[in-house]
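Sequence in, structure out. First:
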Amino acid sequence: MDAEVRARVALVSDLRAGLDAGQLFLVYQPQVDIATGRIVGLEALARWRHPRRGLVGPDEFIPVAEKSGLIVPLGRWVIRTACRQAKLWFDAGIAPAFVAVNVSGSQFRTPLELETTFAAVVAETGLPPARLELELTESALMDAWVEKRDVLLHLRESGVKIAIDDFGTGFSSLEYLSRFPVDRIKIPRCFMQDLGGGPGHAAVVKATIGLGRELGLGVVAKGVETREQLELLKTWGCREVQGYYFARPQPAEELTELLRRGELHPMRPPAPVAADGTVHPR
């Protein structure tokens, strides 16, 4: 236990220093229209290149950031960095409809700071607010709606899109969903992994797609890695997907040429993916 505590404290210290030293960077994973292959959006994902440990996966450093409170400055950096890059693509005429960033529930505990950060970033970058999508988990969205409703409404009124990330993994309420200022719901990767293994996950995915359609919400399926998954989603009426079957998360400089083409078609086969999200070449 002592060793675990020491390691966690060291990681917090390293992460704080890494934020100041510019060790973190963003990669972007395309979201694709199934019918046309058109890139409809990008999700910005944080990565950390540690000077001694190499690439530290988000599954390791994001929970540490949440517990230590570093998720607030980290989230502020993600929004600013993603918006700056999106504005460069926008000015070049190759930007997708939006860039999505994940927002922690912790960031809504200081709602004035979140609104101020967003207003400052929009003013600084000149990015139209409609080009940004904020992704929140169900529990974070519910907490924000109950306690910080004005913040969500102000952001939505400014033009920002709101998405529910990993829909179905939290304590969702259909009554809340019908009243939330939400544009899209995202089906989590864990549901996609076992589509062929039994009726459970398949039923949830089909129901989510149907629910989104009835409520007039966009639906994007995450973690699409096989042709079989894609064909099932097409059969059930899902229109947008995200996953290694189409593209791995890429640095902005690698993605720029892809955005110029504007379309993305499946990779066969997808590259193997490590637990930290890195891709191993074959």
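Second:
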Amino acid sequence: MNSSTPFADSASPPTHPAPEVAAKFRYWQTRTLVTTMFGYAAFYFVRKNLSIAMPAMHADLGISKTDLGLFLTLHGLLYGVSRFVNGMWADRANARYFMVAGLLLSVGANVFFGFSSTVLLLGVAWMINGWVQGMGFPPCCRLITHWFPPGQLATKMSIWNTSHSIGAWVAVVFCGYVVGFGWRWCFFAPAMLCTLAAGVIWILLRDTPRSVGLPEIKVSGHSTDDEDKRSADYKDFVRKHVFLNPYIWWISLANFFVYVLRFAVLDWGPTLLKEMKGVSLQHAGWMVAGFEVSGLAGMLLAGWATDRFFRGRGARMCVFCMIGACLAIFAFWKVPTHSTLQSALLLGVAGFFIYGPQALIGITAANLATKRASATAAGFTGLFGYASTVVSGWGLGRLVQTSGWDTALGALIGIGAMGTLMFILAWPAKAHGYGTEE
């Protein structure tokens, strides 16, 4: 059976579902993919709004770059821990309930932040937001691995991963305009929109195929989906295929470096462009949005190329992406230019290459751990990714404050090189862990 059939996968024997069942399955695959993309993009509205608000908060409240960087670091650390913990919970929970609850809790944290004025209260609000934001990715990962077979995951999850770029892109442009009414509206307005978005997710989203009367995708070497997730056998599987899997460790370490590069632009991009390039906040918002749009194209191409040329081995594609990202950042730093357009183009090229690994790491981890522990594995990689905010948040803020943007950009080149090395070490990893379960 060809790969367009929803039940087909190279790791499993072909099956022949009735035409009406196959059609219904394709409908729910599309609906689940689109709804989770919409839902995760909404999470970004109440998460990446701080980057646009930071320069105005600095002017209004006198908060230093070090303190603003500390907000980013604490938020990221809690998000990383939350995504790991919630990954284990999401493997056992109804994804629909989980995702809606996380978005509404984030709305509440944003409203709290918008009404606060002291460093302490602002920090507490953003830390709370960091934790509840960790409830967004794990249910999506669980859903995608249950609705699509491993042979399609790199392509399909790369499509899903565009939700990161779409959400961040729309958020920074939207907040770039509403900040004119005061920085607090960067939190109040997205909170109102995301309340409506939570209702849309509740109406459209369902859990696994079984919840809508469809059969689960069968993969050879994969045990039943009815297993007790509290059993000793399941815990042993998670320990072996996630926590003792060297390749998941290498790509998790690589994720640390990838996310430093990504967050350096997302969180500090507007400030960097304003101070280093003399760009207005409105134009800086569009330029960071261009970084996201280019990333969208990059992740789609990287996902397709992984399945087409590397047979699902995402780490191999990531090596080439990281080399391209390092070269683009070097050009942005060293090529002399007073052109806003040229700066925007170089930033866009960096985004094109950075977002390939950003998408493929989660896909690679999910495939290696199989759908039995996909959310746990993705949460584990996320723990390292968001630990990076120690560097991209507080660390970068401190470095810029003491040494300037030139030193910071040079440091980012070295960080990109370390990420490349981690992916080289993961080069021998198989495409997936199905057929190796014991």
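Remark: The chain has 16 helices and no strands.
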